[in-house]
Design goal:
This protein is α/β, with parallel strands linked by helices. The chain contains eight helices and five strands, in the order βαβαβββαααααα.
Length: about 160
């Protein structure tokens, strides 16, 4: 994994400011920064060298309302910063939405469930094998305009004949 700076933002303004700070002597660029709450997906992608970020900004605590699970007149509302474990263990969800609780229990290991946020799960990157393997240069999700290796699959010369 390449080196990166880690910053924890106390509020939304601090998160935006942290993301827009550039390297000394260079103009700020948002492309060099990435927000994270649980970080389970971005850290894996950085380990694989699929994504490269110079700064990771932890926003898990910027909005306390984002960690709430609450019943409202029109249903149950789950904050984006609620972890999979918090949702799966919540009494309201266990009692009234057992399929959701069971799905969360089966979706990942306990370690991942303790870190992964519901918002992060909605926003996670594609699970495409070609995206996750940087040796495939053609990936529009990694390099816009490069094509898509998944359209044709492995070249005939590299396929196993059985």
């Amino acid at each position: 994994m390449r080196p990166f700076a880690y910053r924890r933002a106390g509020d939304i303004a601090a998160a935006v400011a942290a993301a827009s700070q550039g390297k000394p002597g260079e103009p700020p660029t948002m492309a060099a920064a990435q927000y994270l709450a649980g970080g389970t997906t971005i850290l894996d992608l950085m380990k694989l060298d699929v994504m490269r970020r110079e700064v990771l900004i932890d926003v898990a605590t910027v909005d306390p309302a984002g960690t709430r699970i609450e019943r409202r007149g029109d249903g149950l509302h789950l904050g984006a910063f609620v972890t999979m474990a918090q949702a799966g263990d919540h009494p309201e969800i266990r009692q009234n939405y057992p399929v959701v609780a069971q799905s969360l229990d089966l979706a990942a290991s306990p370690q991942i469930r303790n870190m992964a946020t519901l918002g992060g799960n909605v926003l996670q990157r594609t699970r495409c094998t070609y995206f996750h393997d940087p040796s495939w240069g053609a990936c529009n999700k990694r390099e816009p305009g490069s094509g898509c290796a998944a359209l044709d699959g492995l070249p005939a010369s590299t396929r196993s004949s059985g």
